[in-house]
């Protein structure tokens, strides 16, 4: 099959990393099938951002699934635990933070795998990063490698020799390198939403871990972050 006609499923949160990943998949000639989740997250504005990004990059189909990880609690992103703020960037990733959502990427990739098999796609893209990140265990290369093994063991397509590839093109990039790559590919970062705890009017807080890493990335890339911050 010609590369230009191949399909890829891309996990799209509406944030900086997943939007860059979507643009990378497009640059590699894939037809884009985006998958987003309303999973009980407190920063639900990211779904609106995902829709805008998907439209801007001409996604062929965008599926938004409703699942409720909030029923389990145990995370500042889905429960009543306060989102940590005001850390130094150098302290981020020293321990797994309370913003970790139990098994989130495993769950998301499982849905992406089902989506991919149903449309005869062999490629799945996820925007995980193991350099400038919050220390989540499901953002590591080992996890991606093991999930790819699972994908090819647990599916009809895999058993029949139509193997899946899990692409994590940002896994070893710094945030500034990610921003540079996305900028070169024409990503409109003003459409993206990264903040863990935005204000009621949708402005980024500027002090949660996600905001701090994003702001540092733009500074190091020599660019101005185009989104609005409350502080």
Question: Any descriptors?
Answer:
Rossmann fold; 5 strands; 7 helices; globular; 5-stranded parallel beta sheet; 231 residues; alpha/beta
What does this structure look like?
The chain is of the alpha/beta class and 231 residues long. It has one domain: Rossmann fold (3-Layer(aba) Sandwich), CATH 3.40.50. The chain is built from seven helices and five strands; from the N terminus they run βαβαβαβααβαα. Strands 3-2-1-4-5 form a five-stranded parallel β-sheet, with helices on both faces. The protein is globular and about 55 Å long. The model has no long low-confidence stretch (mean pLDDT 92).
Please render the helix and strand layout as text:
Blueprint lengths: L6 E5 L4 H12 L3 E8 L6 H12 L4 E6 L37 H15 L4 E3 L15 H13 L2 H4 L5 E3 L7 H10 L24 H13 L10
Parallel strand pairs: 1-2, 1-4, 2-3, 4-5
CATH fold descriptor: Rossmann fold
User: What number of domains?
Assistant: 1
Terminus-to-terminus distance: 50 Å
The name of the CATH architecture is 3-Layer(aba) Sandwich
Strands in their spatial order, largest beta sheet: 3-2-1-4-5
Mean pLDDT: 92
According to CATH, what is the class?
Alpha Beta
Task: Write the element-wise H/E pattern from the N-terminal end onward.
Answer: EHEHEHEHHEHH
- Tell the overall outline: globular
């Amino acid at each position: 099959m010609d590369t230009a006609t191949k399909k890829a499923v891309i996990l799209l949160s509406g944030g900086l990393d997943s939007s860059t990943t979507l643009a990378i998949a497009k640059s590699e000639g894939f037809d884009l099938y985006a998958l987003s989740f309303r999973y009980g997250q407190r920063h639900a504005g990211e779904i609106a951002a995902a829709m805008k990004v998907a439209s801007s990059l001409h996604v062929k189909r965008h599926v938004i699934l409703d699942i409720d990880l909030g029923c389990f609690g145990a995370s500042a992103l889905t429960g009543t635990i306060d989102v940590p703020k005001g850390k130094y960037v150098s302290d981020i990733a020293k321990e797994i933070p309370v913003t970790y959502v139990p098994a989130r990427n495993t769950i998301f990739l499982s849905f992406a795998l089902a989506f991919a098999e149903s449309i005869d796609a062999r490629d799945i893209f996820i925007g995980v990063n193991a350099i400038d990140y919050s220390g989540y265990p499901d953002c590591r290369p080992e996890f991606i490698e093991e999930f790819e093994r699972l994908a090819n063991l647990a599916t009809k397509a895999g058993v029949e020799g139509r193997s899946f590839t899990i692409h994590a093109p940002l896994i070893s990039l710094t945030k500034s390198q990610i921003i540079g790559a996305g900028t070169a590919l024409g990503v409109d970062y003003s459409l993206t939403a990264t903040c863990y705890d935005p204000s009621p009017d949708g402005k980024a807080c500027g002090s949660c871990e996600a905001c701090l890493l994003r702001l540092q990335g733009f500074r190091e890339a020599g660019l101005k972050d185009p989104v609005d911050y409350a502080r």
